[in-house]
Each structure stands twice: as structure tokens, then as C-alpha cells.
Amino acid sequence: MTVLRIALAELRQHPRRVVAVVVSIVLAVGYLVASVTVLAGTTTALERGVIERTAGTDVVVTLRAMDPRAQAALAHRVAAVPGVASADLSYLSRGSVSGSSEWVQQQSVPANAKLRWTDLTAGRWPAGPDDIALGATTARQLNLRLGDRVTVHDTTSSVTLTVTGLVRESGSLLSGLAQRSFVAPSYYTGAPSIRTSLQTEILVVGDGSVAAARLAAEVTAVAGDNRVETSTSFGRRKMSEATGGVFVLHLMLLVFGAIALLVGAIMIVNTFVVLVAQRRRQIGLLRALGAGRWQILRALLAEAAAIGVAGAVLGTGAGIGLAAVVAAALDGPLTVPVGQVSALAAVGVAVTLAAVLVPARQAMRVAPLDALRPVADRPAERRFARLRAAAAALLGCIGLAGIAWGSGERPYALLFTVGGAFVAAVALLSASGIIVPALLRGVGRALRRGRPTVRLAHLNVVRNPGRTAATAAALMLAVGLVVTLQVGAASMTATAERNLSEQFPIDVTVSVFGGALPERTIRDVAGVAGVAEVAALPSARVRAGLRGRTTDVVVLSPGPDALALVPVPVPPLRNTVLADPYLLADTGVRDGTRVTLTGPSGSVTVPVRAHDLAPADAMVVGPDVMRALDARAPAGTLWARTRPDADITALRSQLRAVVAPITGAEVGGGLSAKAGYREFLEKLLTVTLMLLGVAVLIALIGVGNTLGLSVLERARESALLRALGLQGRQLRWMLAIEATLLSLAGTVLGTAAGVLFGYLGTRALSDEVNFRTVVFSVSPPRLLTVAAVALAAGVLASVLPGRRAARAAPIEALTD
């Protein structure tokens, strides 16, 4: 107990020594807690979006295709089953908004108010077949308000509806990618026509007298060959069909959490190594007075446990607070997974205890008289260095193998790539004790003729590889994380822009298929705020022979001015026809197949190629082919390019006003889809920046902490130099030069590693989301800025330790 009391007294008397350790634990645990909490909130929001229609039910009956009257009759039979309180038909479909290429999801409002999973924010629920309620996000994207009229086309008919209400939509990282609307059940069953539902269920609510599983069995007896599931089973099945994006997000947050844990663990290990090295003489004295090895170990573990518990508790609170900020920024739910948060707090304590084992084991193996010596055991240090080099080589091989395995089209390729990169990063950090001194020895050749202070600083950083590697590794982590995020974000943004431009090459289209646009349309569209350039294209309706059947299609013929608006290369159109990929897929036509097109002026037979430049159910041809098909084809389509800073909502509104008077005119293009993906990427980058910034903060604190503790460790050495005539100003310069050299090594290695891992992350994520083209983007000015900041941070971190060392009286330091 005496040794334990001494350990706790050490914490009370020297709190500054452990502040940085506590801060590292707080930040590492806080990061992990924030990551799992943000993920839990996003998953909760996604679950609500997927199963919100059935969240209040006990049993769900998924109906096969049948007559609506038969569906209604079945719903009545289900309602008569003992234990059933209500059985409501629920319809789900999709429709396109007239005057644009926007699609909205339509779902019927349940008759049972308990099944209305969301609340009205304005207006009222739809009551008749001509009413519609929009989600608040959807209404904002479509620029619609209460009382506005909107025409929706489904697979069988078109109907003009009145916006009667706005409803609240759940916010999350994935919100805004699906646009929603609500209609009355009579929209599907009333006159004048019966509209097609893509998905129809009977939502069964029990009266509480029968368990859900038993109720499902009773309903199955009257449901025929329709699928009957409990609400829980239905939700689990739907979630398994919709979790692809969450898997990527989950993996990213776990990777960043692992990075934070790695950074925190290295900082904690480095700090304890320096602290134990600094207390070698104290430990040696305790051993000489009779303290056993296990008593020393228990004392160090007690210190680590106290530090770990304090850091884990504070970190848990900080992580939940950060997650609350992220949830507020994304307008999403705050869901705290208590079990995972508790486990992460325990992990923080366990990592702290594990971090002290390495220096504690070294302290236990040192004899009392050896510990009282002023210098450490160099042979032991060399043995440890060789062991760490072997471990680094093994980890490096494993990491490279994982990266290579994830490069192919295999299951869980992203997991292998990211895992391999993580292991390779650990290997690089483990090898820093070899790489950093070797790099600094090369730098020393240029410093041989420098001043004595410069030469002494260089000798100090190369004669203790362990201490040098610990300090440089901290800065290498900070720089590597920043550069990885910087390169990854820039490359992922450029990759997304390139692939979106390939998939949606034209920002805005205005079309009257089979007719001519009024001459003033070009002028009106060009005058819309945010439109940069406009070009008119001849269009005609022709007959196409596709795999033995003839289909009516629209052909467009862009001239040089129209092709100049396309941001990606376009194949030559002289002897090729570009077709909508979905049109070819539906008709079973392969790339390169020769098709015959017949128009008013004649016929041509040319090879066809799938390309996203062609609108839905249309083809793009060259001017020669267009003249052969229809020599008098009118300008029936406009292509427009928008400015990067365009207000998309206002632009949509003005375009709708322009085309409203034109019968049959439709606004399309990829601007809306691009905007949705950009919004998602911006949200994702916001989250990663907020979370990864914490890991960078951990590393920067580790730089200052390791430099400060290394100065404290060398207090006797500095005092001896002062006693031999080194002035205080020269001592401060020496420490500043050491910090500069260490910062330079850490910055160079961190930048190189960050560029590599940024590229690997971009390639892995691009493969996961099926991007066809990967764009690698590096900004040299930004890299130089990061390097300058890192060097400045390293030098500034040496200021306070240098001042303390210079102010210490040589006699007092030598007698410590």
C-alpha cells in the first residue's frame, strides 16, 4: 500500500506531467464516442426512412399484383381476424413532376392516425384524389408552396394536384436524396382512373391480446399466397436492402475512430515512456529501499488506471457533446448507443493500462544500482529497436498484402484496402525509429560546418533514436492525417464531379419532343439568373429497329456550340449513334450493334453505343445522320450550362416559369442530381472534418507534450551544458533547432504518407460506389501551407520547455 500511496502522491504533486496524457485520452475516447453516436443517429434516421410507414404496425402483408377490389376485400378479411384492431391498405409509387425531370416518391396517408409516422408543419393532410402533401425538404427542392398546383406523371396517367400540406422529414447525412410526397388512398382507387402502385401492403395493428408472431400466423391463414411478416421481420428485410451507403459510412467512421485510437495510444505510450525514463532514479531508489518489481508495476498501473478513468469519463461527455453538435448541424436525431459508449470508455482505460506495460516492464527489469545511473541501458535499447524493426517489417508486408488484395473486384474489397492501409500506417510509425534517425543523419552532413549550437542540436537528435522517433512520429501523424484528408477530400470531390459530369453531362435541358420550341425560348432561358451558355439542337421523332421490333425514339443532333457545353469527351458522331443506356438495356441491344433508323427524309443504318449524353429513351446523332433522317428537323431541344455559384432553387423556379406557357415542354438535365450528390458530399466532408480534426489535435498536443517531457528528461544534461559554459540563449536555440529538425523529418514523412493514403482511400471509396473514373488531385500550395504550419508548430512547441530549461539553475538541476 505504501507504494500505491507514493504513486497517487506523485499524481497530486506533479499534475502537469499527466495533463497531456489525460487530454490525449479525452480526445481519443471522445472521438470514438462521437463516431459511434453520429453513426447511430444516421442509422436511426435511415431506419425511419425505410420502415417509417410500418413502424406502428404489428404485422405487414405484402400484396402481389391483384385487382384493387380484391385487395380491398382481402383487407376486410384481415380486419376480421381475431386480435386485429385495424387493417389499412398502404400504397407506394413513384411519379415524375411535370416541367422537370424530378421524381417523387408517393405514399398513401394511412386511415389509422396512429400509423402517420410524421407530423404536419403546415396545411392539412390530403383528403381527396387531387390533393398532395410534400415533405418540407422536397417542397424546398421543387420550390413549391401551399396552394401551388403540380402535375405528376406515373406509369399510366398524369394528374394535376394541389399542395395542401407540408410534413416534417427526418434529417440525416442521407436525407434529401429521396423526395417524398403523400396522397390520399383515393388517389389510387378513385375515378377517373386507377393509378399503378409499385408496392402495396396491408398494415395490421393488433389490439394487444395476441403476440405479433401469433397474429402473423392467424393472418397468414386468410392472406393466401401473399407475404405475411411481423413488423420487425419486415423492417429487418427492408434495412438489409438499403444499407449499402451506411456500410461505407460505417466503415469510414470506424477507420477514423481507429486512427484516433491509434494516435491516442501512441501519444500515451510515448508519454509514459518518457515519464518512466525521467523517474528511473526515483524507481531505482524505491527498489534500493526494498520495493519489489511487482510493487513497482502495481504503482504504475494504479497511476495509469486513475488517469485512464478520468480521461475516459471526460472523453465520453465530450464525445456525446460533439455528436450533439453534428446532429444539430445535420438536423438529424441524436441517438446515444449506451452499450457501445460504455465499451469505448472501457477501451480508453484498457489502452491506458496497456500503454504503461511497455515502460513498466522495462522499469521492472532494471536493477536498483542500474536505475540510479544517470544514463539508460543502451544494449537494452538496441535490442528493443531490433525487435520493433522486425515487427514493422512484418506489419508492412501484411498491410501491402491487404491493399493488393483489395485492389481487385472481390467481396469486401474496401474493407481489405482500408484495413491494409491502416496496418501499413502502423508499420510506418513502428519503423520511424529507423527512418527518422537515418533521414536526420543525412541532413547532418549539411550541418557539419555549422555553429557549435547547430552541431550539438544535430548530435542530440541522432544519438537517442527512441526519443527522436517518439517526437517525430507525433508530428508525422498530425501532418499525415491532415494531408490524407486534404488529398482524399480533393480527390474524392474531383472524382465525384468527373463521374457526375459523365453521368449527367448536361446541366439543364428544355425539350418539346416531336415539336419545335418557340424562338423566344433561347432568349428567355439565357436570361435566367445562373445560366451561363445556351445552345439549340434539332430534334426529330424517328423509328428505330431494335432486336427485331420497331420503336419510336427521339433523336437529337448537337452542333459544335452544343458539344462545347459538354464537360466530358464525346465519341465522334460521324458514324456512331449514342443511345440512352437504359433504352439499350430494355431492348437487349449491345454496344456496337448496327441499328436502322427511319425518318421523314430517309433511313440510315449505323452502329449504336450506350452513352449518358443521350436523354431517356432518346438517341444522339451527328448532323449528317440528322439530315438523312429529317432534313427539316426543328430546334426542339435546348442545352444549357450553369454557373458554379448558381442558386439552384431560384434557377429551377425561373425555368419552370419560362416553360409553363409552352405546351408539352419539359425541363430536365443533371443539375438537380448533381446538387443532391454535392449536398451529400458536403455533409460527409463536414462530419469527417469535425471528427478528424480531433485526431489532428491529439497529435499536435502529443508533439508539444513529447518535446516538453524530453526536455524534462534531459534536465541534468542541460544543467551540465550550462555548467560547462553554454548560455541560456544558446540552450534555447539548441532546443529550437532540435525541434526544427524533428519537425522537418516528421513533416516530410507525414506528407509522403498522407499523399499515398489519400490516393488509396480515394480509389477504395470510388470502387465501392462504382465510380468509373478516379481523379487524383493534389494541391502543392496547400501541401506547402501544411508543411509551414507543421514546422511552426514544432518550433513553437519547444519555446516553453526551452525557457524552463534555460531558467533552471545548473546546481539545482544537477542535484535533482
UniProtKB/TrEMBL annotation:
<feature type="domain" description="ABC3 transporter permease C-terminal">
    <location>
        <begin position="690"/>
        <end position="809"/>
    </location>
</feature>
<keyword id="KW-1133">Transmembrane helix</keyword>
<feature type="transmembrane region" description="Helical">
    <location>
        <begin position="387"/>
        <end position="406"/>
    </location>
</feature>
<keyword id="KW-0812">Transmembrane</keyword>
<dbReference type="InterPro" id="IPR050250">
    <property type="entry name" value="Macrolide_Exporter_MacB"/>
</dbReference>
<feature type="domain" description="ABC3 transporter permease C-terminal">
    <location>
        <begin position="255"/>
        <end position="367"/>
    </location>
</feature>
<keyword id="KW-0472">Membrane</keyword>
<feature type="transmembrane region" description="Helical">
    <location>
        <begin position="684"/>
        <end position="712"/>
    </location>
</feature>
<feature type="transmembrane region" description="Helical">
    <location>
        <begin position="296"/>
        <end position="329"/>
    </location>
</feature>
<feature type="transmembrane region" description="Helical">
    <location>
        <begin position="18"/>
        <end position="40"/>
    </location>
</feature>
<dbReference type="GO" id="GO:0005886">
    <property type="term" value="C:plasma membrane"/>
</dbReference>
<comment type="similarity">
    <text>Belongs to the ABC-4 integral membrane protein family.</text>
</comment>
<feature type="transmembrane region" description="Helical">
    <location>
        <begin position="412"/>
        <end position="440"/>
    </location>
</feature>
<feature type="transmembrane region" description="Helical">
    <location>
        <begin position="247"/>
        <end position="275"/>
    </location>
</feature>
<feature type="transmembrane region" description="Helical">
    <location>
        <begin position="733"/>
        <end position="760"/>
    </location>
</feature>
<feature type="transmembrane region" description="Helical">
    <location>
        <begin position="341"/>
        <end position="360"/>
    </location>
</feature>
<protein>
    <submittedName>
        <fullName>Putative ABC transport system permease protein</fullName>
    </submittedName>
</protein>
<feature type="transmembrane region" description="Helical">
    <location>
        <begin position="469"/>
        <end position="489"/>
    </location>
</feature>
<keyword id="KW-1003">Cell membrane</keyword>
<dbReference type="GO" id="GO:0022857">
    <property type="term" value="F:transmembrane transporter activity"/>
</dbReference>
<feature type="transmembrane region" description="Helical">
    <location>
        <begin position="780"/>
        <end position="800"/>
    </location>
</feature>
<dbReference type="Pfam" id="PF02687">
    <property type="entry name" value="FtsX"/>
</dbReference>
<dbReference type="InterPro" id="IPR003838">
    <property type="entry name" value="ABC3_permease_C"/>
</dbReference>
